[in-house]
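Continuing from the previous page...

OK, I double-checked the sequence for Nitroreductase domain-containing protein against my notes and this is the correct one:
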Amino acid sequence: MNTSQLESLLNWRYAVRKFSEQTIAQDKVDKLIELTGLSASAFGLQPYKIIQISKQSIKKALLPHSYGQQKVLDNSHLLVFAADMSPLDSQVERYIQDFKANRNLDELVYAQMELGMKDALHTMDCASQYSWCSEQAHLALGTLLLVAASMEIDVCPMTGIDKVAYDDVLGLSSLNLRTVLIAPIGIRDSTDVNANTSKVRKSRDLLHIEV
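Thanks. Re-ran it with the corrected sequence; updated C-alpha cells here:
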C-alpha cells in the first residue's frame, strides 16, 4: 500500500452515524479481529480482549446504557474492547510461554525478559492497570479503523457509554474484564449525509510542534 492509497482510505473512513441493514460476513469479521491483533502493544502483552456481539437481544440490553445512540443496536456486529484486569504477573507468564513457542532462545533470555516485564509492571494498582490496559486498547482501535477501511467495513468508535453498566450486562467482572470502548461495525447507510462530507481537521501548523 502506497501513501496515496493510505490517504484515500483515511479519507474514506468516518464515524458512521447510520448503518444499513447489511450484515458483514463472519469470515470478514474474523479477519478484521485477527489483523487488529497485530497492533502495537506495550511489551507485546495485548492486555485487552475484543468481545464480538451479533445477538440483537444483547445489543438491546446495552442500548439504555449508551445514551440512546441507536448505532449500538443498528449495526452488523458490536465490538467491545475490554481491559484485561487479571493479575499482570499471570499475563506476563502467558506471554513468555507464547514467546517460547515462537522463538528459539536461551532459557536465560526468557527468564530475564519475564523478570524485566514483571519488575516494570509490579507497582500498578487496579486503577493504574485499567488506565494502562485502556491505552493499549486504544492503540488496537487505531489499527482496527485502518484495517476496516481497507476491507470497506465501516466503524464508529465510541466511548460515550456507561462502562460499569456494560460490565454488568456482559458479565465481565467474572472474567476479570472491564469495558474500555465500543466499536459498532457494518456498512454505511446511503442516507447518512456524513458519508460524503469533507473532514474537518486541524491544519498542520495547529497539529504539529517542532522542538
